[in-house]
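User: Could you check the structure of this?
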Amino acid sequence: MRTAFVLGGTGFVGRAISRVLRDAGWSVTVGRRTSEPLPEDIEGSVGDVVALDRNDDDELAAGLGEGVDVLVDTIPYRARDGSQLVAMKDRVGSLIAISTVSVYSDDDQRSLDEAGSAEEFPDFPVPILETQVTVTPGDQTYSTRKAAIEEALLQQDDLPATVIRPGAIYGPHDTQCREWFFVKRILDRRPVVILGYGGRTVFHPTSVANLAELVKLAAEKPSTRVLNCGDPSPPDALGIERCIAAAMGHEWTEVLLPPRLALTSVGRTPWSGPKSVVLDMNAAREELSYRPITSYPEAVGEVCDWVTAATRDLDWRAVLPRAAEYLGTRFDYDAEDRLLATLGRV
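Assistant: Sure, the predicted structure tokens are below.
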């Protein structure tokens, strides 16, 4: 039986990958930071569990035991994580690392991490090919660290290494849950939703189910390569809002702000921006015969159901700590109502 080890295997990305690999006949072991009992909702669904500190090279090597056919790293964040993975070459047949769309930069070296204004926002080709220039590897930002990880994996020939660059990953159990931006408004019975940039720009969403499918295919056909991963026919911010409202049976009035008014947090959704970010998926289709498992309209309902149930009668910030980091100031309904009054919409 083929064997896989999934680092970060109990996170929302890791558990989806583990489940897909197990369903495809792999023997899956997952690595997690703690030896505490698994949450009831994932117990028995992710394979064997090993507690380890991935920052400790010896612990990672010990966790791999006598070796595995593929090591999937869903949580490579440090610049040195790439070289750490390569150092496991005697215990691993191939590597797969989850990177990010934010490693890309445009032809003027503008990147998503450094876009502090509309003028600084990168002007990417639509769609973005895997050959697009990337940020300079380093230890300065999230994206430069991801680029350093990629560099370590792609510039070695000790073992096959696949780098996957997803867009905005979503799925049940995601504590960053971008969808909460709209779900909370619906639960609060807001009659109006405001969208910056007319809701017409795209930040490519990636279903965790589609990501897991691509990981499975890459594991079955090891090679050193870079692959984008994004949903088919990605909706713009307006389309995402409508998908979520439909999934929750909610109707409201849409107020679409022109770009000149999209300068404050009002109307700034997690998918809003002055320009679109869209991933090309031809490489995955051509190299691995990849076909998406789902689409955003099909998949988002499960996310809405999960986050609604998970936050019921609880402080949403405790349930969604990563979302709280960047959404905490985006539910200022008083500010929204003042803007609506200014626009003559109330």
